[in-house]
Amino acid sequence: MINSSAKWCSRPAQLNNRVFAFKYTGFSLVELLLTLVVIGIVMSFASVAYTHYIKRANDAYGKTMLLEVLAQQNKFFLKRRYYSLSFQALGYANEQVRSQKQLFTLSLSPCGAESVYKCIQINAESTSAQTTGINYSINTYGDKFPAESW
């Protein structure tokens, strides 16, 4: 005998001594929400890591610019036996040198009290929030500042 109320309860229905289990297909709302929460947590960690990676990559670009200017200074020194305080003398178009993405502004200065015949310091000042905010420097002796960030 078929119990008409059996199909509305959670117990399996019986028909001629055969058990028919209810088959559920698809996802429940709780399963979908749990999946979205897990994906959200993973994405929050991934976005922070990606942002930090981009900032470090942009810093590496600024350091590369410093090394390029240092190479130009060394070429200039080999020809003239002193270092230049002018970017135009090194072959750049302007006295104010900025990176292509406007992340760093470069400047030249003598090393402390020493003359341009002995040492020059090249500075990269961070001008964007897309970097870690550290200002880098290198001099013609090879000293890098801040040393722990190189």
Can you summarize this structure?
Helix content is 35%, strand content 19%. The chain has 150 residues and is of the alpha+beta class.
Helix/sheet category? alpha+beta
Beta percentage is 15-25%
Distance between the termini: 83 Å
The profile of the biggest β sheet is: 5 strands, antiparallel
- In terms of per-residue confidence, which ranges show pLDDT below 50 for 5 or more consecutive residues? none
Number of β-strand runs? 7
Rg over CA atoms, rounded to whole Å, is 33 Å
Q: Assign a percent range to the helix content.
A: 25-40%
- Count of the separate structural domains: 1
Contiguous helical run count = 1
Q: Tell me, what's the shape?
A: rod-shaped
What does the model show?
This protein has one helix spanning 29-80, and strands at 13-15, 18-20, 97-98, 104-110, 120-126, 136-139, 144-145. The chain is an alpha+beta fold and 150 residues long. Strands 3-4-5-6-7 form a five-stranded antiparallel β-sheet, covered by helices on one side. The longest helix has 52 residues, at 29-80. The radius of gyration is 33 Å and the shape is rod-shaped.
